[in-house]
């Protein structure tokens, strides 16, 4: 959330001239050349951004533009990452762990420094980890403006076609509000549980209530790899026949189980999708799943007791179709983007005085709910952020893979370790800490 507000306030624009679109790209798109739907969406985004930074720019009912809880918290929360700017710049390039390099990049960008785009672009040029590179490009898009477009343009001819396509997509979104893609062919693998398995990039702000008075809040801005390390790498798993009313978000956490197997955590979402445009779907989905809540704040650690609770989560956004990729006589989803929000529990005693390397470990934070007599009073974190996912070429053969990713879920979100479409234990949607899965 907060990084998306950086570099956009009237004060920032006054201090740092954003430059011209003509200088940023060789063929800039004029606003009057955009489609009506694109202009409407961009105008709404413009008004919304202005309302976040200075409500006086927007007339009308404050309930429409001043009710964002995340923004209210962001204005008052203290940073729980207390590294200096110099330390962040150094670790963004020198830390041996790619997740920590990426975390330093996103934290630096979230602090709204003038040289953030240049730092991110340098990391995208030089980092040896593929995901650090495309996540750095995403952070550049979040900062926005002509400077961001100019920086992203450098990667349009990158040797890695995924980096080049992400750059093309981000530039198009900044100019028109809509994504753009390259011309690679797509490959659908039949007889898989899901028609598509879309790898998700997720960035979130974690706001933690530091005392019962509700007057002290802390904040951690989690970059995609850091979030995946704690809560699990997520894949969106739609099927053409049901994607407008339900889908599974399948998550796996590596390094949590002692035997080396992935910890599986699946969420069945249901909701509404607007299909008034044939090239996309606008959706609002919710999930409510039974989970073992660990009072220790560490997944799979029952040392302080457990509680069975129903955990809710919401996600909403837009998916864009690719007519060239056909699945069951329908266009496949090429790209999805949106926002999400939910609740969590962070045991503050587990993170107090520890380095970020000790905090960003598998399972060190659990999702929570307010609607349980035991779990509700322990809930102390508000989680919200944005996500993006597109189809990628995972095996390097030059063809986009629609559903090649391994996800351990049935169509109803039950654990399915052998991916045969049949639940290993009917009704079980998350690895059971009391027994090893097959």
TrEMBL record:
Alphabetical list of SMART domains matching this protein: EZ_HEAT
Gene3D superfamilies: Leucine-rich Repeat Variant (1.25.10.10)
Protein name per UniProt: HEAT repeat-containing protein
């Amino acid at each position: 959330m907060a990084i998306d507000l950086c570099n956009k306030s009237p004060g920032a624009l006054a201090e740092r001239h954003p430059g011209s679109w003509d200088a940023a790209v060789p063929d800039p798109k004029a606003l009057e050349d955009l489609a009506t739907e694109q202009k409407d969406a961009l105008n709404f985004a413009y008004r919304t951004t202005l309302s976040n930074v200075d409500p006086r720019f927007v007339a009308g009912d404050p309930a429409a533009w001043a009710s964002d809880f995340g923004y209210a918290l962001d204005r008052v929360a203290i940073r729980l990452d207390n590294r200096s700017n110099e330390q962040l710049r150094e670790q963004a390039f020198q830390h041996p762990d790619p997740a920590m390099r990426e975390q330093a990049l996103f934290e630096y960008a979230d602090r709204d420094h003038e040289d953030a785009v240049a730092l991110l672009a340098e990391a995208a040029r030089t980092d040896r980890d593929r995901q650090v590179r495309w996540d750095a490009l995403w952070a550049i898009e979040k900062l926005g403006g002509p400077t961001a477009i100019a920086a992203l343009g450098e990667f349009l001819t990158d040797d890695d076609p995924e980096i080049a396509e992400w750059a093309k997509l981000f530039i198009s979104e900044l100019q028109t509000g809509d994504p753009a893609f390259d011309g690679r062919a797509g490959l659908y693998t039949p007889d898989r549980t899901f028609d598509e398995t879309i790898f998700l990039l997720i960035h979130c702000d974690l706001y933690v209530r530091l005392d019962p008075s509700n007057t002290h809040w802390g904040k951690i801005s989690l970059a995609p790899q850091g979030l995946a390390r704690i809560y699990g790498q997520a894949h969106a798993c739609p099927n053409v026949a049901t994607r407008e009313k339900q889908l599974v978000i399948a998550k796996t956490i590596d390094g949590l189980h002692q035997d080396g197997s992935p910890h599986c955590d699946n969420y069945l979402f249901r909701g509404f999708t607007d299909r008034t445009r044939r090239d996309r779907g606008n959706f609002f989905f919710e999930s409510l799943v039974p989970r073992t809540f660990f009072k220790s704040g560490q997944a799979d650690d029952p040392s302080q007791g457990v509680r069975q609770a129903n955990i809710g989560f919401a996600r909403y956004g837009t998916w864009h179709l690719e007519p060239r990729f056909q699945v069951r006589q329908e266009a496949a989803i090429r790209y999805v983007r949106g926002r999400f929000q939910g609740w969590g529990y962070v045991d503050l005693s587990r993170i107090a005085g520890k380095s970020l390397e000790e905090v960003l470990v598998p399972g060190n934070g659990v999702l929570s709910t307010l609607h349980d007599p035991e779990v509700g009073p322990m809930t102390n974190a508000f989680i919200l952020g944005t996500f993006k996912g597109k189809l990628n070429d995972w095996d390097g053969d030059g063809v986009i893979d629609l559903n090649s990713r391994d996800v351990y879920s049935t169509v109803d979100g039950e654990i399915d370790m052998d991916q045969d479409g049949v639940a290993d234990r009917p009704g079980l949607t998350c690895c059971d800490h009391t027994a090893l899965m097959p």
